Amino acid sequence: MDRESALEELKDKDLPIERVKEIFDTFEEDLEIVGQVAMNLSLKTSVYDSNKGKSPLMEELLIRLSETEDMGSRWAVAKNPHTPPYILKKLAKDSINLVRALVATNPNTPVEVLQTLFGDEKIVRDGLSGNPSVPAKILTVLADDSDKMVRMRVAENPATPKEVLQRLTNDGDTNVAKAAEFTIKQKGAS
Description:
This protein is mostly helical. The protein is built from 13 helices and no strands. The longest helix is centred in the C-terminal third of the chain and has 16 residues, at 174-189.
């Protein structure tokens, strides 16, 4: 198989995962192909259907991709719903803030890891504030964050306690207040 045809094949989200692995095994040192493998795996998953694309082979490839130098690949692994928790724990210490931010957004990230990300920089807190797996006590503190986007994501988070949402309806930023009102209505409807 040649490099160009491998890159072309990886554009197909329906490419069998066995073939994706074969390409990865052949071109493991080619960072462009490694990045395309990560992208292909992302296309095989869905935030709306947690079982879509799930397989032992998917997990194996995600584990291997988490070790690569390619930041884009680690980024794709950090946000993938099939990434094992122990890999998310490792990626929570990545030197790249965007990788840590995507670990913070992943609902499969263990709570103890989410708690360590609480003190991280704004982009990571922003990711954390929208994660429905974040404990209520962290969301309560994030609701007072100085950054309005962090407060906005807390207001939109279905896991935010109702009393915190009620408080956010009086936020100085009208968009945060409206988001909190909307989430309260959504919770009332469910």
